[in-house]
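Chapter review: from sequence to fold.
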Amino acid sequence: MPDLLLLLPDFLLIVVGFVLCRYTSLDRPVWSSVERLVYYLLFPVLLFNSISRSQLRPGETLALAGAGVAVLLSGVLLSYALRLWPGVHAQNHASGAQVAFRFNSFVALALAERLQGAQGVAWIALLIALCVPLANVAAVWPLARHGGHGYLKELVRNPLIVSTVLGLVANLSGLRLPEPAAVSLQKIGVAALPLGLMAVGAGLRFGALRDAPGLAGALLFIRHAALPLVALALIHVLALPPAQASMLMAFAALPTASSAYVLAVRMGGNGPFVAGLITLSTLLGMVSLPVWLVVQGWVGR
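The token string follows.
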């Protein structure tokens, strides 16, 4: 059973950002600049590095890869369906829908190493490489539609999608950057996680969740209950080996991506609402993720 405190460092960084923004001279104008830096440079560099340098080997893990994509698409369909609920505010849904299916890649990689070592990291890297482009495309769609942006234009301009595609191209073509350039990019990417999480905290406004508590509850239910249940069903249907089954369950039960907040803000969405969802998702994930892994292990016996 993984450490229940695995997600505590992420949550503490969110708290640090909240305190700095509210109680020091590092107020909103400072963090608005940080958000742009994270969104346009740090996260894209991190994604490119992670994907371009991973040993994907898709032929050896076809069932796991297909199951991971199926879990993600299930979250997309369920979150999009919430728009049909009566009384759902269009901006809140466009901003928050991504929370139900996006995932925290940093936690995924840390957990994979803890559970299955280098092999687990390779499997999770494959899922990240396949699912990050799909998740970002699905996240951009409702925000672009609500904000009146051109969808294709937003996709082409989205730095997370562009960096993921470039990472896949570099990986599949065998491209390797000169060592000085690779080291420099790695150092840039390392800054993405702490600054991204602190930016979430700086934009936090718990009261924003009261704007749509029903929608918030439904999105978090999809992220932390519905998707793990889908993973359990796929593990049974596909008869995944125990090691791959644990990786799929870990992937399905992850907390949502911290970059969801930055995307919502940059595309004119309800940033505080998304920030509250991310914080609650991180808290829920600290408990629900290890519980789901135990359930998967018990069912798989």
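Two observations follow directly from the output. The chain has a mean pLDDT of 86. The chain is about 75% helix and 0% strand.
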